[in-house]
């Protein structure tokens, strides 16, 4: 019994209400029994003070009661107390029942939301991530329910992201693998000639596979924050020059002008040079990928409140507004086939770039006038002078 009380919040609340009711009734009874005689005397004296005028001839005067009066007053008091106690019992029983019902209702109003949260937690633990609890009112219990729902929604999101990730990764792996398998089968069956082109095709797909696996490894490290930034003072102009130098051959081969806009005086950043290079190279090679021949890709940098903004602007295909919010999501590609043809990756590059910028305490965003209007990606990195 004691154990079940200890383990049930409802029983605890109910018993505490009951204790309050019982103590209240005891105090009411004791108090009334204690106060009754003096209150009776007071009222009797007041009554008797009025009586001689009402019943002249009985020889009753205030302060001098007749001998027989004392007995009848005592009897009157006993009768009065008995009737008072009778009334007290009835009223006490009515108050007790009303209070019991009310405390049952109140204790249930506390335990029910708690039980609902507990049931929902059990269902979520069993894998039903869509489980939510009703939120009524704005008290602490409703806040608990609302926080619980927030947590459940987050879990739901993480779970669906995990599912999507597995589906995406298998899809991404399947495409080059199928191509390699197809080419090899063609070679075995003699359908495909054992030519340089066939081997080059297989090699390209194998390279794509390798790049995907490398990207995935990078992504998992970046997302788990399982890498350490080797922070050193980084000079922004030399960073930009390195990117230009690295990607100039690609730009030339694609017939795109790759340029560095004149840079103002800039503070040094406390960052990991290799990682920052990775971010800018990614943005620049994307710009080169999604810009047709004859276009321009330009790097620029400027100082803004406590930050250095480094931008990569292109005159390429641009990004429609509906894609903007999702462009940094993993595996998100605007046009899968176009991205592949353009030699694009699996839609992980920007996710990694964003995670790296954020690891530096920075941000990354994109602006574009829409399709065909070019794009401008900006990385904002904080600096301390
Ligand atoms: P990917 O490896 O496929 O390029 P990213 O994460 O780097 O993956 O980019 C995601 C998608 O964003 C790309 O598939 C492309 O559709 C779009 N994108 C990225 N950079 C640009 C750009 N400069 N201009 C237009 N679209 C871009």
Broad structural category: alpha+beta
Number of strands: 7
Strand content: 5-15%
- What are the segments in which pLDDT stays under 50 over at least 5 consecutive residues? 53-62
Globular, elongated, flat, extended or rod-shaped: what is the shape?
elongated
Rg is 42 Å
Order of helices and strands: HHHHHEHEEHEEHHEE
CATH architecture of the largest domain: 2-Layer Sandwich
| CATH class identity of the largest domain | Alpha Beta
* Major sheet strand order: 2-4-5-7-6
Count every helix, treating DSSP H or I runs of 4 or more residues as helices: 9
Strand and helix layout:
Layout: H1 2-7, H2 9-54, H3 67-125, H4 140-189, H5 196-223, E1 232-234, H6 236-254, E2 257-260, E3 269-271, H7 273-289, E4 296-304, E5 307-314, H8 336-341, H9 349-359, E6 363-368, E7 375-382
Parallel strand pairs: 2-4
Antiparallel strand pairs: 1-3, 4-5, 5-7, 6-7
Helix pairs in contact: 2-3, 3-4, 4-5, 5-9, 6-7, 7-9
The protein binds adenosine-5'-diphosphate.
Summarize the structure.
With 385 residues, the chain is α+β, with helices and mostly antiparallel strands. Helices cover 63% and strands 11% of the residues. The site of adenosine-5'-diphosphate (ADP) has 21 residues, from helix 7 and helix 9.
Describe what you observe in this structure.
By secondary structure, the protein is an alpha+beta fold. The chain has 3 domains: 113 residues, no CATH class; 83 residues, Helix Hairpins, CATH 1.10.287.130; 152 residues, Histidine kinase-like ATPase, C-terminal domain (Heat Shock Protein 90, 2-Layer Sandwich), CATH 3.30.565. Helices cover 63% and strands 11% of the residues. The chain is built from 9 helices and 7 strands. The strands form 2 sheets. The chain has a 5-stranded mixed β-sheet. It has a two-stranded antiparallel sheet with strand order 1-3. Helix 3 runs parallel beside helix 4, helix 5 packs parallel to helix 9 and helix 6 packs parallel to helix 7. The longest helix is centred in the first third of the chain and has 59 residues. The protein is elongated. The relative contact order is 0.06. About 3% of the residues have low confidence. The site of adenosine-5'-diphosphate has 21 residues, from helix 7 and helix 9.
């Amino acid at each position: 019994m004691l154990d079940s009380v200890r383990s049930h919040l409802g029983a605890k609340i109910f018993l505490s209400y009951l204790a309050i009711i019982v103590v209240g009734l005891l105090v009411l009874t004791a108090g009334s029994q204690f106060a009754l005689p003096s209150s009776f005397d007071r009222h009797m004296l007041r009554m008797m003070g009025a009586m001689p005028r009402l019943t002249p001839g009985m020889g009753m005067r205030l302060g001098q009661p007749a001998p027989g009066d004392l007995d009848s007053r005592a009897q009157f008091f006993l009768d009065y107390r008995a009737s008072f106690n009778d009334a007290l019992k009835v009223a006490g029983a009515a108050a007790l029942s009303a209070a019991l019902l009310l405390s049952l209702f109140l204790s249930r109003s506390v335990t029910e939301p708690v039980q609902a949260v507990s049931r929902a937690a059990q269902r979520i633990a069993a894998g039903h991530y869509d489980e939510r609890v009703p939120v009524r009112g704005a008290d602490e219990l409703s806040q608990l329910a609302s926080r619980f729902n927030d947590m459940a929604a987050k879990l739901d999101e993480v779970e669906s992201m995990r599912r999507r990730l597995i589906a995406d990764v298998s899809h991404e792996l399947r495409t080059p693998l199928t191509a390699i398998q197809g080419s090899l089968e063609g070679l075995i069956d003699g359908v495909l000639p054992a030519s340089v082109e066939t081997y080059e095709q297989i090699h390209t797909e194998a390279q794509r596979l390798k790049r995907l696996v490398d990207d995935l490894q990078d992504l998992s490290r970046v997302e788990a924050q399982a890498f350490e930034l080797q922070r050193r003072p980084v000079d922004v102009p030399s960073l930009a020059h390195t990117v230009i130098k690295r990607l100039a051959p690609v730009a030339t081969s694609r017939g795109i002008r790759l340029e560095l806009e004149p840079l103002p005086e800039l503070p040094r950043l406390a960052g990991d040079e290799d990682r920052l290079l990775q971010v800018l190279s990614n943005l620049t090679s994307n710009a080169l990928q999604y810009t047709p021949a004859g276009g321009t890709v330009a790097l620029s940098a400027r100082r803004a409140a406590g930050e250095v903004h480094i931008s990569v602007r292109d005159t390429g295909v641009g990004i429609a507004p509906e894609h903007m919010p999702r462009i940094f999501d993993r595996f998100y590609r605007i046009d899968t086939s176009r991205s592949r043809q353009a030699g694009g990756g699996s839609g992980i590059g920007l996710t990694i770039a964003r995670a790296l910028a954020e690891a530096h305490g920075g941000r990354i965003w994109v602006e574009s006038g829409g399709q065909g209007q070019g794009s401008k990606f900006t990385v904002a990195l904080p600096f301390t002078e």
